[in-house]
Amino acid sequence: MWQRSSSSPAKSPDWRALLGLGGHVAGWELVRAAQVAELARMTGVIALTQVMSALALLVLLWDTSPRWQLLGWFAAIVAVMIETTRLAARVRAGTAIDAPQPVIRRVSIRSIILGLLWSVPSTIFSSTAGLDEQLAICLVSTAVIASATVTVSAVPVTMLTFVALGASGLTLMMAKTGSLFLAALPVGYGLCLAIGGLISGRAFALRKWAEIALAEKHEVVSLLLRESEDHGADWLWQADSARRLRDVPPALADAAGSTPDALDGMPLFQLLAGERWEEPGQAPELRRLLERMNARERFIDFELPALIRGETRWWRLSGNPRVDGRGQFVGYHGVGSDITEARRSAEKIDRMARFDALTGLANRTAFNEALRKAMGRAFRDRGHCALMLVDLDRFKAVNDTLGHPVGDKLLRLVAQRLSGLVAKGDTCGRLGGDEFAVVIADAADKSLIGALGERIIAALSAPFEIDGQIVRVGASIGTATGPRDGRSAEMLTRNADLALYRAKEDGRGVHRLFETNMLLRAEKRRAIESALRDALDEGQLRLTYQPVVNARDDRIAGFEALLRWRHPELGDVPPDEFIPIAAEARLLGQIGEWVIRAACAEASRWPDDVRLLVNLAREQITDPQLPAIVLSALAQSGLPPSRLELEVGERSFREDSAAISAAVDRLRGLSVRISLDDFGACASALGHIRMGRFSTVKVDRSLIVAAASRDPDALGLIRAIVALTATLGMDTTAEGAETAAEQRVARDLGCTHLQGFLSGTPVPAEDARALIASAIRRRA
């Protein structure tokens, strides 16, 4: 009902304060509240005592006193007690007036009224009463007066009023006897009761006073201990109503780099903000604290900067408002601590959690937040933002050949170049590995996005110098614009990733913007991937065999196993469409193993002079399990290793030369033949030919077509290839010789074998066996 003061009592109460006659003491309002609460608690007993005593006199005096006076007197007592009971109920319910003093005043008035009412029997009704009735009046009145010292002693002024009036009435009644002794007897009796009641009331007040003082001290100590336990509170602080520091403890003075005397009386905000504390433009935390203190509100764990000896420190303050005995605001007290080091550690941890440790760019978490904010602004302002995903080309080769330390330095240099290209207000981040990204906050001008993409590609394609070495990489970029290409950060990221995938498909080193058909292609790819996972188990994959013939006599020298897939709903899916998907879904190893085993099993049924050619994808070649798979397939089928020829594409050497070379050497150790496929497409494996890693070199169809058109460069290159392979004892296969002119130029240039639709189309296994049988019959 009445809020507890936040200040500890400064001195013990005197009699004036006890009787409510002045001498206000800080915190005494709480004692008055306890007095009122005790009086409300005893109201039931008081009402019962008053009414039953009045009823007893009403019965005893019914025949000797005027009945209308008796009934009026009794009704008056009942009315006063009813009103007093209602007031007590309001006090207990907390709906009485806001301070205890007015309640005490109202109770005292009722006490005066009751005292006057109880003086009526002894002064008025005793005149017509007999000796027995007078004795009854005396006994009941003294009992009622005595009960007051027990029931209302908690409020001494109320008790004294009632006792004085009751004793006065008895004195007047006894004075009528003419005996001075009898007249003095009620006075002495009342005086004894008053002294006893005062002692009891004072004991009650002092006990409550001690409890309140102890609770106040406990509150302060608990606040300090709680802050010390939770946040390491260092000191207490106290300020008056003008927010000036008072009773400054040494711990606070040490934290402020001053002395208690120097700080005493200093405005709190001058301590926090320095000499310019009254000027505008202070830290927002200080402004918020000022607002809280102006509103006289409690605050807990309030963190704010403090300018201490020219250095900005961070303090945590908790404070409670204080009021005096009259309920007037007198200031604040609380606890505080210096949290500078903890805050710096938290900021460091936050930075580590939000920024990439290697490059200093925003990490994935912080970058996604920036993207969501940019999307929100775009929606709010009806504008556009853009997301650019930047992926480094050939970064894996740098890590594999030069080592991860060089790769890390390269990533830092890439981050520096990217940061230099990004405009203020945009965000550059590293998402992981060699993946970078840029959020463009204002992407209304598409030409600016295209220009930025070109600058990024040019900057990242320029050489890097690292530890005295020149390192070259490139970049592919995919961009999606929001909210047109995605109405959420997740959708925009997905579509930018699709654009990046298209950039890689288009040869890398290019920038592609998201288009709707990319999403359709991605959905088709997902459908193909899902169906491909069941293709082996459901027998949808099959092998066809394309003949490779001897250039001299068109005799079948071997067959190349070609993978085909017919899906019941998707139909015939081209290998160049599902093979890359299988590689990305990490299904190529399983499918490749099936191809090797099935092809070897089929080739074991062919004559000994017919070889089997199996093309290996780059992911298969570097699989450490491949040699074991080949050995197992050969052993199960009984096919001699010399009849198996594994084809390795020339592009594989360009992408990962060292790893491919090592894998080829492991396969050569199995005594199988190795064929270099598509030679001439990028001319990156010439050195490996000189090292004798291959049994056959297959000349790319583009060179054969150019040579058939009498291109001098193509003719010269094929002659050089044939001369080199002949010198090293290798066969040379003209791949894709589809016309008579192409076959003729291949023979004229010295190619030992031909492969193409003119020599034979891919056929099922049974048709391949029929071709072999037919060739044998012709020779016979």
From TrEMBL:
N-terminal signal peptide: none
SMART domains linked to this entry: EAL, GGDEF
Span of domain EAL: 525-776
Transmembrane segments: 43-63, 70-89, 109-131, 143-167, 179-199
Alphabetical keyword list: Membrane, Transmembrane, Transmembrane helix
Residues covered by the PAC domain: 298-351
Domain GGDEF residue range list: 383-516
CDD domains: EAL, GGDEF, PAS
Protein name: Diguanylate cyclase/phosphodiesterase with PAS/PAC sensor(S)
